[in-house]
Amino acid sequence: MATSANPIAQTVFNLLGHAAKLAETGDFASAGTRLGEASMVLERERSDDDPEWHQLSARVYSGLGQLALRMGNLDEAQLQLTQSLSARSRSEALGATPEHLSAAVAHINLSSTLGHLKQVDAAIAHSEQALARLQKSDDPAAMLYEVATLQGLGQARAASGDVAGAGECYLTAIERTKELAASGVDDIADMSTQLKIMASINLFEQDRYDDAHALGAEAVNDARDEHMRSGSEEALGQYATAQMNHVAFCEAIGAFAGAEDALFHVLELVGPQPDVIKRGRQLYTEMLKLDDALLERGNLPRDEVKGSLAELDRMEAAAAEQSA
Fold first, then answer.
1. pLDDT tens per residue across span 228-277
2. C-alpha to C-alpha distance for 181 and 189, rounded to whole angstroms
């Protein structure tokens, strides 16, 4: 199996392609059958000193690992993806041209698997290895994968208690989405907004309230603009989430009128839902404990706070009467 023109190699490629199409349709059983056939073809032609044989093996293992991950078979996914990376290392040691993007995808999937298995440190290590591979790749898709990997790495670092490290990942990912947009890549608005939501929460957790407020406002505006542009339901949901976050951000910096505006934008969107009403009551109750001077500085005098609290009561009563 010296070259990819070898009919055995072509058979494996065909089986891999067929398996991928079957998996996309949700026919995981048939996809697994095709991958099993590819594995048997390779085993019959085993050649431990052939770098191409190891590259093909890596692709089959990776396919089996991705399939196991999608089916929720985490232990099997970990086994297959680990074997995929080992086979890739062997092929490169034998002189094969590195397939950085494919290797990165295997690291990404293994990181996701390990995250589900609560092996956070190992998940972080594989995300970092994925990023190192992606930075060496000249494939146009590499930056999209980099954004997704940075988001996952941020979540893993947050889970490990590294809040600042998580924030660095989110902010870097946001910069990458700007580069993608500048290069003409479409359909990244929802991804960008979600990253801004996550990053603004992270900044808030670091007590960087002004930064959280500024980035949270961007998330609100971006989600609103994207919904107006495309009618995206995802953007509408992001808008509601970002506005609810903005209530806390505005409250933290004493911008009480801004907090109220954000709250009522959500109420206009979703109606007097119990969790939103509860958050509003909490907001106004805390405001009533403050000095008049602070409320005036936040552009929400005490009488307006009391009036807004009464408005929440009216909205809740009207909703209860309507549902009775």
1. 999 999 999 999 999 999 999 999 999 999 999 999 999 999 999 999 99
2. 9
Checking phi first, is residue 256 left (phi over 0); if not, alpha (psi -120 to 50) or beta? alpha
Tell me what pLDDT residue 193 has: 97
Q: Is the distance from CB of 59 to CB of 16 less than 8 angstroms?
A: yes
- The amino acid occupying position 84 is S
Q: By C-alpha distance, which of 63, 84, 65, 62 is closest to 76?
A: 65
At residue 5, the pLDDT reads 59
The whole-number pLDDT of residue 44 equals 92
Grouping H, G, I as helix, E, B as strand and the rest as coil, residue 120 is: helix
Distance CA(205)–CA(189), nearest Å, equals 24
Please give the model's pTM, rounded to 2 decimal places: 0.89
Q: Distances from the Cα of 273 to the Cαs of 235, 263, 285, 316, in angstroms?
A: 20, 12, 18, 8
What is the token pair recorded at 124? 């972080």
